[in-house]
Every structure is written in structure tokens, then in C-alpha cells.
């Protein structure tokens, strides 16, 4: 099969080897097996069967948990902090985990998605579990499920469900003192909500996302998020839109769940001077306040009964020491500075733009000459790319570059970053749509494209413009940086030959004193970039 669009045909012929996979190590075999759960027939049948009956999802999760040799009663011993939200739930979890680790507790942390390696989703004491541990526990859980599938109509859990079960298994086996669990999507019917007795729950900022699953209004989304509330379990939320807050209050009342709204970060009395955050961006202050409340409530139950909350030195240091890659992250490699933020909703993109304009301006003031600004963008799923791109216009980029979430166009593509739920054709079509939206925002019209690379690997509008489309992340980064990032200039990385006419367009990049690149629109895109520019992230 080839699509009617000849441009996409050229892409697909060029990328025909991209699904090839380098194996040979035990951990690679485990990850390859894990990836089969993205598309196996039983998983797709589960989705179809449960779409109209979401309550079946938790029922099915209990069954898988038991088949893996675990019980919901065992999960009660993990002393869980359960966190959901639309924007900032991962950062809130990262703050919380770091704070409690600073008290000497052995922490477990389950999050999604991963940026570079799937092991990032399951952390012990802030670090992704090692390859040996991942492999050991993966086969323990997978083996039990495989052995029992014939008695259950051949069913196996889908990718996220499996990883959730694996995380619970790891945390129990590794005897963590507590587990910080980030919800996948929503809350009420998310498979993490099999948890019966968390110690405390949190809801970060709410907005519109995953509308096909959660609903298309803030009220419907708030109802789903409030589904993690449990009877007599304290819960905290940041300030929310009025309608969303009303729904959360109603949900809390229904479930006899005490709910509090976090104060502003400025309202805390700190014993060690002003509060500093390890994560950049004004919006992180609300996440930090939520993390302080979650941490303090957990500590009160564990070992600090009574007393008014003060931001003690350990709490303050925990906030300052927090790291969470891919969120408002800045990396400088010589003349090239990368600004990475996985914003993928309207509200998170607004926060990203605010952070980038402020931070990039500071860097430009320190530059000794001209600075070229480049946007590297991709968006996936049902998200409104055109609306997000419109928010980025005030950043005044010299180039807007688009590529799919494909790390590189070679057969040794990283197994951790393969996604079999979206076809390459759909990914490439989305990039062309994004490029077209950007041009329309600039009043450049909807022009056709010509091949950018001689073997048909990329595209650029016929008329001179500031937009380019590449077939993979590596080829986009190589063109943008023009050999000026020593990490990307590694001789082991293949370099695609670009037409001379297109290379001429790079004169601005070659002549600039510095190149500033904002990478945004997708956490998967950010992860693919980090794989190339931060080699330590792949170890």
C-alpha cells in the first residue's frame, strides 16, 4: 500500500527501514516484547469493548493484577501519593518525590510518558531502575500473564496497563517507603485508580486535553480527575477555573473526601530564606505549592503529627534540588542553546511561550553578536496544532522546522521510542499540516512543496520561506545546528546530504553568533532530541 500523495510516497520509500530494530541484548528483547503490547489484537479489542463502558477498565485491571500475582490489598502497603491533572502533574510528582527523598525515605516514582528510555517511568530513589532490574522484573510479570492468558480468552494487558502493574511489582519487591504515582489519563477510570487507600491525593492545573476520552468541557474533565478522591483521604488542588472547582468540590463531597486548595507559594513561611525552585517557569510555583502540601501531609501521617506547616530547610532544599528533564529545560552546547519544553496543550503552550521569551531574552543579552531563533515543532493525537502554533508567533523565529517523532532514519532506531499505534504516513502527513498552518499564520499561503534532500527525505516550500520539514529528528537537528554542536558533529552519526539550494538557506544559521532552538509541542519530540544531544540520557 502507498498513499495517493506523491510527497508522502517519497517519504515512505525513504523510511522503509525505520521500523527495523537492533536487538541482541536482554533488555532490548524485553522492550521489544513490551512494544508488542501496543498493538496486539486483544489489546485493541479491549479498547473497543471498554470504550462505552469505562468502568470495565478498572475491573479488567484487577484481573490482570491478580494474574500477575498481586492483589489490591498489597498496594495499600505502598503508602501511595496519587496525583492527576492536565498540566503540571509530572512536575508536581517530581517535586514531591525529591522532597521526601531528602528526608531519607526510599522512594518509588511512576510517571509517563518516558523521554528516552522506558525505564524512566519506574524510578527508585529518583533514578530509573537499572537494566538488570528492569529485565528481571519484566519477565517475572510478563511470564505470569503469558502463562494465564489461555484461560482468559488470550488477553494480555495493553502497554500502559502492563507498565503500571510492573511498577507496582517493582515497588513492592524493592520495599520502597512510599510510591508517588502519576495518573496516565483522566483519573476515575485510569488504571492507576485501582489504588484503594492512598495516603494523600493531588490535582494539578486543569485544562482541555484528551477530549475523546475525558469529554470536551472543563466540567467533564474535572469530573474525571476528581475520580481519584477516596473516602477520608486528604486531597489538595491548585486554584482552578470556577466551574472546574465546583465540580471538584462536589466530587469530594460525594466521596467524603476532605479537599483543600493550596496557598500561593509566596504565602509559605520558610525557615531558610526565600524559596527557589529547581524547575524553571512561573507556572511551576503552583506545582511546588501542591507538592509541599502533599509532602507535608504524608510526613504528618508518617512521623510529624500536628503543628502548623512551615517550609523547613529540607522542604526548601527538596524544591531547589528537583530535576525534571524536558520541562522548561535549557542546555547550552557551545554556540547552540536548546530550550526544551514538552508543552502539548493550549495552557501549557502559553506557559512555554512566556518562559521561552523571558529566558531566551536573557541569553540574547549575553550573546556577543547576532542570534538566530529556530522553532522545532511536532504535535500528535487530537491536539489543535494550528492553535498552538499561533501562540508561538510572538517568539519571532527565523525558521520553523517540523519533523515526526522519529529519532533517526536508520534501522537501529531506539526500541524505547518506537510507537506502533501511529503509522509513519500519518506522522508525516501531520508534519505537512503543521508546516501549512505555520505558513498560513504568516500569510504566506498554502504553497506546494519540493524535495529538500536528494533522496526524497524531506520537504521545503518552493518559494523562499522560513519553514522546513524533515523526515526525522536527527536530520532536523543536523540542519539547524550546521555542525556547530560538537555532540551532533560526532562522526558516528550519519549525515544526510542536502541540496545546495537548501543549504544556501542556512546562511543565517552559519553566520549567527549563536543559535537558539525551542523544541516543543510533544514530550516524545523532546525525548527524541535529548537522545541525540544528551548522550547520558541513553545510558
Please bin the fraction of helical residues. 40-55%
The portion of residues forming beta strands comes to 5-15%
Within CATH, the superfamily of the largest domain carries the name: Mur-like, catalytic domain
Q: How much is the average pLDDT?
A: 86
CATH domain topology of the largest domain: UDP-N-acetylmuramoyl-L-alanine:D-glutamate ligase
**Number of self-contained structural domains:** 2
Distance between the termini: 37 Å
Supply Rg. 23 Å
Strand order of the largest sheet: 4-3-2-5-1-6-7-8
Description:
Strand 7 (235-237), helix 11 (242-254) and strand 8 (259-261) form a beta-alpha-beta unit. The protein is 41% helix and 12% strand. Strands 4-3-2-5-1-6-7-8 form an eight-stranded mixed beta sheet. Strands 9-10-16-11-12-15 form a six-stranded mixed beta sheet, sandwiched between helices. It has a two-stranded antiparallel ribbon with strand order 13-14. By secondary structure, it is an alpha/beta fold. It has two domains: 25-321, Mur-like, catalytic domain (UDP-N-acetylmuramoyl-L-alanine:D-glutamate ligase, 3-Layer(aba) Sandwich); 329-410 and 423-443 and 463-538, Protein-Tyrosine Phosphatase, Chain A.
Amino acid at each position: 500500500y502507498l498513499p495517493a500523495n506523491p510527497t508522502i510516497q517519497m517519504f515512505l520509500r525513504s523510511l522503509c527501514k525505520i521500523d527495523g530494530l537492533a536487538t541482541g541484548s536482554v533488555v532490548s528483547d524485553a522492550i521489544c516484547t513490551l512494544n508488542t503490547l501496543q498493538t496486539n489484537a486483544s489489546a485493541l479489542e479491549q479498547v473497543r469493548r471498554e470504550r462505552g463502558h469505562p468502568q470495565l477498565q478498572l475491573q479488567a485491571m484487577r484481573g490482570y493484577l491478580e494474574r500477575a500475582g498481586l492483589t489490591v490489598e498489597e498496594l495499600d502497603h505502598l503508602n501511595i501519593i496519587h496525583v492527576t491533572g492536565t498540566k503540571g502533574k509530572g512536575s508536581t510528582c517530581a517535586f514531591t518525590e525529591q522532597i521526601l527523598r531528602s528526608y531519607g525515605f526510599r522512594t518509588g516514582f511512576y510517571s509517563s510518558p518516558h523521554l528516552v528510555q522506558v525505564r524512566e517511568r519506574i524510578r527508585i530513589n529518583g533514578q530509573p531502575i537499572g537494566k538488570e532490574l528492569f529485565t528481571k522484573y519484566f519477565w517475572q510479570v510478563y511470564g505470569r500473564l503469558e502463562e494465564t492468558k489461555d484461560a482468559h480468552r488470550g488477553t494480555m494487558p495493553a502497554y500502559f496497563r502492563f507498565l503500571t502493574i510492573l511498577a507496582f511489582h517493582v515497588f513492592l519487591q524493592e520495599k520502597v517507603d512510599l510510591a508517588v504515582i502519576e495518573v496516565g489519563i483522566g483519573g476515575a477510570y485510569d488504571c492507576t485508580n485501582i489504588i484503594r487507600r492512598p495516603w494523600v491525593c493531588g490535582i494539578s492545573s486543569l485544562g482541555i486535553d484528551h477530549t475523546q476520552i475525558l469529554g470536551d468541557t472543563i466540567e467533564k474533565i474535572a469530573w474525571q480527575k476528581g475520580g481519584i478522591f477516596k473516602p477520608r483521604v486528604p486531597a489538595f488542588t491548585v486554584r482552578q477555573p470556577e466551574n472546574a472547582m465546583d465540580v471538584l468540590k462536589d466530587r469530594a463531597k460525594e466521596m467524603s473526601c476532605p479537599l483543600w486548595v493550596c496557598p500561593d507559594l509566596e504565602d509559605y513561611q520558610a525557615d531558610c530564606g526565600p524559596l527557589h525552585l529547581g524547575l524553571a517557569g512561573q507556572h511551576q510555583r503552583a506545582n511546588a505549592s501542591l507538592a509541599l502540601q502533599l509532602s507535608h501531609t504524608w510526613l504528618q501521617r508518617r512521623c510529624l503529627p500536628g503543628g502548623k506547616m512551615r517550609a523547613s530547610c529540607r522542604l526548601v532544599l527538596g524544591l531547589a534540588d528537583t530535576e525534571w528533564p524536558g520541562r522548561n529545560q535549557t542546555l547550552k552546547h557551545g554556540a547552540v542553546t536548546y530550550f526544551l519544553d514538552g508543552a502539548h496543550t493550549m495552557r501549557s503552550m502559553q506557559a512555554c511561550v512566556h518562559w521561552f521569551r523571558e529566558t531566551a531574552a536573557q541569553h540574547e543579552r549575553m550573546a556577543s553578536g547576532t542570534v538566530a531563533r529556530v522553532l522545532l515543532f511536532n504535535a500528535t493525537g487530537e491536539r489543535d496544532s494550528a492553535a498552538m502554533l499561533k501562540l508561538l508567533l510572538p517568539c519571532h523565529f527565523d525558521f520553523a522546522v517540523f519533523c515526526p517523532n522519529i529519532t533517526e532514519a536508520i534501522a537501529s532506531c531506539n526500541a524505547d521510542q518506537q510507537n506502533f499505534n501511529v503509522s509513519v504516513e500519518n506522522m508525516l502527513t501531520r508534519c505537512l499540516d503543521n508546516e501549512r498552518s505555520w505558513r498560513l499564520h504568516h500569510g504566506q499561503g498554502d504553497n506546494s512543496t519540493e524535495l529538500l534532500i536528494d533522496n526524497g527525505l524531506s520537504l521545503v516550500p518552493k518559494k523562499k520561506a522560513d519553514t522546513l520539514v524533515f523526515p526525522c529528528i536527527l536530520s532536523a537537528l543536523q540542519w539547524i545546528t550546521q555542525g556547530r554542536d560538537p555532540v551532533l558533529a560526532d562522526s558516528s552519526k550519519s549525515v544526510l546530504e542536502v541540496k545546495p539550494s537548501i543549504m544556501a538557506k542556512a546562511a543565517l544559521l552559519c553566520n549567527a553568533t549563536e543559535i537558539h532552538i525551542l523544541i516543543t509541542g510533544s514530550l516524545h519530540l523532546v525525548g527524541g532530541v535529548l537522545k541525540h544531544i544528551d548522550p547520558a540520557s541513553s545510558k
